[in-house]
Amino acid sequence: MAAKRLTTWDDLLGRPRPNPTHTIQWGPGATDVADLWLPEGAGPHPVVVMVHGGCWQKSIADRTLMNYVAEELRTNGLAVWNIEYRGVDEDGGGYPGTFLDVAHAADALRVEAPKYNLRTDKIAAFGHSAGGHLALWLAGRHNLAASSPLRMANPLKITGVVNSGGLADLKASAPVTQPECLSRIMGKLTGDVSSTRSNVFSDTSPVELLPLGARQVSVNGHRDLIAPQVLGEGYTRKAKAAGDNAEVIVVLNTGHVELVAPGTEAFNTEMAKLKEMLR
Length: 279
Fold this sequence. Notes:
The protein is an alpha/beta fold. The chain contains 8 helices and 8 strands, in the order αβββαβαβαβααβαβα.
């Protein structure tokens, strides 16, 4: 029997692209912006912080790639805070800029939440591919060492993360994902060794921040060549060993794109997990 045809990026991007409810410039920088997808009704609305992928490179993707899934979550009653950040291929991107952008963008949600009646008692994060890495990093950044340039006081608390085909363990991911997606840009993403930072993964790779103290669900496609299932399985073993509530779900006949394509088994599974986290 022939293998089922996988969904391509052209398949997804060929759909009419929805538009957000609001676009909010929360800071002065060009990428200090987030799209808010607000459900119908007065609220209070549960919130998903969404982080796009694209191999940490803006030439590959920006936040609008997530418009399809953001709209699907919105119509299912979840508000979405879809953030932007500088990629490693942009001025100021990489280490520490990319991480600081993501952190500040997440924290900006607290400022906007009262205006739109958003709940902040429980916040879930959803990240795809490189965004899965950054979403888990957001959940664990309270564990950053005081000496890290990425350390901030009072970070937004993330109570659950759906890691959608994410590259959560940078060291483990580099040999198995496509070279242009990680190994060729690793130095820009993780920064250089210094006298106070002998391990460049110590503040950049979520696996180094375990236990995160948040529920973690890794969803992987059985036929995903960007984020093979071994990555979700390996990360989850380490998270559970550290004492976290973590699980991995492998979806058959699924590649990388199905994970962010509404209507697929993979995305329906992810949406159900987000609803559980915010219940």
